[in-house]
Amino acid sequence: MTTTLIAAAEPELTGLAAWAVDLMETLGAPGAGLAIALENLFPPLPSEVILPLAGFTASQGSFSLAEVLFWTTLGSVVGALALYSVGALLGRERTRAIIKAVPLVDVADVDRTEEWFTRHGKKAVFLGRMIPLFRSLISVPAGVTRMNLALFLVLTTTGSLIWNTVFVLAGYVLGENWAVVEPWADGFQVAVIVAVVIAVGAFVAKRVVRNREHRRRVAAGQETRGGI
To answer: Cα angle at 59 between 54 and 62, to 5 degrees?
Structure first.
C-alpha cells in the first residue's frame, strides 16, 4: 500500500530524492528514519522531500503520524551522535593541529570559537537543529568540547522533533500537494548558504587586509633598522 500511495503522490524525483523514496517504500516509517539519519551525515540528502512525503503517507494511513515523528527524530539523533563521536575522537589538540594548516585561520580563532561555544553551546545545539547545514555541523564542536552527552541528547532530540514535526505536519496537511514545501525549504537553505558565504568572504577579506598591514609594518621596521 505504501508503494502505491507514494507513487501516486510522487513528482518527478531523481537521484538522492528517488533513492530516499525507495527506502521509504521498502521499510516504511523506519526507512524515513534511516534516510534522516543519513541526511545528517550527508546534507545533500533532501530532508525537505523525505519529511513532507512521510507526512503525506501517514495521512493516507500507511503508518501513523506518531510513527513517522518517532522514527525521523530517532534518525536525527543517531546521525547527530555519529558526528558528535567524530568531534570527540578528533578532540581539541587534533582540531587545533588541523586548523593550523588552514590558510588565514589562527589557532586563536579556535580558542575564541571554543570560548563562544562554552557560553552559548546549549542554544547553538538546540537552534542549530533547525538550520540547514548547521543541523549536521553543530554536532562536531559539541563533540570536540565534550558537551555533556545527556544534555546534548536532550537538546538534539528537542530541536530535531520541532524541525521534523513542522515538515511532517506540512506533508500531512497538504496531502498530495506535499511537494510545494520543497521550494520554501530550498529558499531557506539558499538564504543560509548566502549568509555563510558572505560571512566567510568578510572574514577572508579582513584577514587578507590584516596580513598585508602586518607585512607592511614588518617591512617598514626592517627599513628603519637598516637605515640606522
So the answer is: 70
CB-based contact 135:17 (threshold 8 Å): no
Among 35-39, 88-92, 134-138, 196-200, the least confident range? 196-200
DSSP-assigned letters across all residues of the chain: -HHHHHHHH--S--HHHHHHHHHHHHHSHHHHHHHHHHHHHSTTS-HHHHHHHHHHHHHTTSS-HHHHHHHHHHHHHHHHHHHHHHHHHHHHHHHHHHHHTSTT--HHHHHHHHHHHHHHHHHHHHHHTTSTTHHHHTHHHHHHTT--HHHHHHHHHHHHHHHHHHHHHHHHHHGGGGGGHHHHHHHHHHHHHHHHHHHHHHHHHHHHHHHHHHHHHHHHHHHHHHH-
Q: What is the pLDDT of residue 28?
A: 83
How many domains, the chain? 1
Does residue 161 belong to any structural domain of this protein?
yes
Identify the pLDDT of residue 1: 46
* Residues 44-82 pLDDT 10s: 666 777 888 888 878 877 788 999 999 999 999 999 999
User: Which position has the grid cell 548558504?
Assistant: 193
Q: Which three cell numbers stand for residue 11?
A: 513528482
Residue 222 lies in a domain: no
| 27 in a structural domain | yes
Cα atoms found within 13 Å of the Cα of residue 220, Cβ hemisphere only:
6
pLDDT value at residue 131? 80
Range of the domain at 54: 19-181
